[in-house]
Design goal:
By secondary structure, this protein is an alpha+beta fold. Helix content is 37%, strand content 28%. Strands 4-3-2-1-5-6-7-8 form an eight-stranded antiparallel β-sheet.
């Protein structure tokens, strides 16, 4: 029976010695869990900051304000997207951030619906025009504009500016009915880009 105090003392010594090890193990596990949560948060934050491309900006703008994209262009980290309402009587500028968040900057109501008649009736919308332009000229879309002025006998079309991997920009015209490439510089608006079209 005299062994019992010695056994208890030995167990106490082992527990006391294991205490810091167990605490260190627990602290290590806690630090690992915290590091994993931080890494996940950083990854999520990085994904949220990923640059939205032109196609993503157009989709985000249409989700915020349904209708027809008339034009879009990138200004620094944000996109300015003009959306004509489904009835053609309103025009909204939608700002889309680099994370894809859309907010309406301003809206102009009471428009003449006839002004946007050809845009609304176009068989090839903005999304298809960007896809066709990228098929003809690989790169990234930097701007898109609806052109229905029919200058120089060119039918209604989209003018899509694309920046290629080597940094050169080129305007690609896409016919609004056929989706085929047409001369983009029909209205003279892009006169300084003439050298990039060849």
């Amino acid at each position: 029976m005299k062994r019992t105090p010695y056994v208890r003392a030995a167990v106490s010594v082992v527990l006391l010695a294991a205490g810091p090890v167990a605490a260190a193990t627990s602290a290590s596990a806690s630090a690992s869990a915290h590091a994993a949560r931080t890494a996940t948060a950083v990854t999520a934050d990085t994904a949220a900051r990923a640059d939205t491309d032109a196609q993503g900006a157009a989709a985000a703008a249409l989700k915020k304000y349904p209708g027809y994209v008339e034009s879009l262009d990138q200004d620094g980290a944000v996109w300015h997207v003009n959306v004509v309402g489904k009835n053609g009587k309103s025009n909204s500028e939608v700002i889309v951030s680099s994370s894809g968040a859309a907010s309406r900057a301003n809206q102009d109501t009471g428009q003449d619906a006839g002004e946007y008649k050809t845009l609304i009736a176009a068989k090839v919308g903005a999304a298809k025009a960007m896809k066709a332009a990228l098929a003809a000229q690989p790169g990234k879309v930097r701007s898109l504009d609806w052109d229905n002025e029919n200058d120089n006998g060119v039918a209604d079309h989209w003018s899509v500016q694309i920046k290629s991997a080597n940094g050169a920009t080129r305007d690609v015209g896409i016919d609004a009915t056929t989706g085929k490439v047409v001369p983009a510089d029909s209205g003279g608006d892009n006169g300084d880009d003439g050298g990039d079209n060849g």
